[in-house]
Design goal:
Elements: E1 5-10, E2 13-18, H1 19-23, E3 26-32, E4 38-43, E5 46-48, E6 51-56, H2 61-68, E7 71-77, E8 90-96, H3 99-112, H4 114-120, H5 122-132, E9 140-146
Antiparallel strand pairs: 1-2, 3-4, 3-7, 5-6, 6-9, 7-8, 8-9
Length: 153
C-alpha cells in the first residue's frame, strides 16, 4: 500500500490521485447534508475513467445528498469507514452515472471483488433480473472526480 500522493498534469488540469485509493478495498465516501454535516460511508471502489466509482441503491441517501451538493471527500478506509493510517482525505465532486456507465462500473466491481461480490451481491442481481428483466435494475453508480492538487480535505 502506498501513502504517497501522485499528481499528473494533463492538458493543464492537475489531477490528484493516490496509489492507496487505487489499491483500497474500501474507501470512506463523505457527502454532506443540507446543514453541512459530513456523512461517511464505507464503499467498495474501483478506478473509473477520470476518477473512482462505486455502485449503490438508486434511492440511497448518498444519491440524494450529492444531487443537492456534489462536493465530497474520499479516503482509503477499513470496512467500517475508519480512515487507514497514513491515508489522505481528498476533495472531489460526485456525479450519478448513466445506465451504460453503471453496467461498466458493476463489471469493474465484480472483477475486483470476485468472491465477496458473489457472496454479497450476485443473489440480489439475479433477483433483480428476474423481477425487472435486468440485473442492473435497481442499481446506480456514483463517480468521484478528484479536485486539483492542494485541495485535500
Amino acid at each position: 500500500m502506498h501513502d504517497q500522493k501522485i499528481s499528473v498534469d494533463i492538458d493543464g488540469i492537475l489531477l490528484a490521485m493516490t496509489a492507496d485509493l487505487d489499491d483500497a478495498r474500501y474507501i470512506a465516501f463523505v457527502s454532506f447534508r443540507k446543514d453541512g454535516t459530513p456523512v461517511s460511508t464505507a464503499v467498495w471502489v474501483v478506478p473509473f475513467e477520470d476518477g473512482y466509482a462505486f455502485t449503490t441503491d438508486p434511492d440511497s441517501w448518498k444519491i440524494k445528498r450529492i444531487l443537492k451538493n456534489p462536493a465530497v471527500t474520499i479516503q482509503a478506509s477499513n470496512v467500517r469507514g475508519r480512515p487507514k493510517r497514513g491515508s489522505v482525505a481528498i476533495a472531489g465532486h460526485a456525479e450519478v452515472l448513466d445506465p451504460a456507465a453503471v453496467a461498466r462500473v458493476r463489471e469493474a466491481v465484480r472483477a475486483k471483488y470476485r468472491i465477496m461480490y458473489r457472496l454479497l451481491i450476485e443473489r440480489s442481481d439475479k433477483k433483480a433480473a428476474k423481477q425487472h428483466g435486468s440485473a442492473t435494475a435497481g442499481t446506480a453508480a456514483i463517480k468521484v472526480v478528484l479536485a486539483p492538487s492542494g485541495q485535500s480535505a
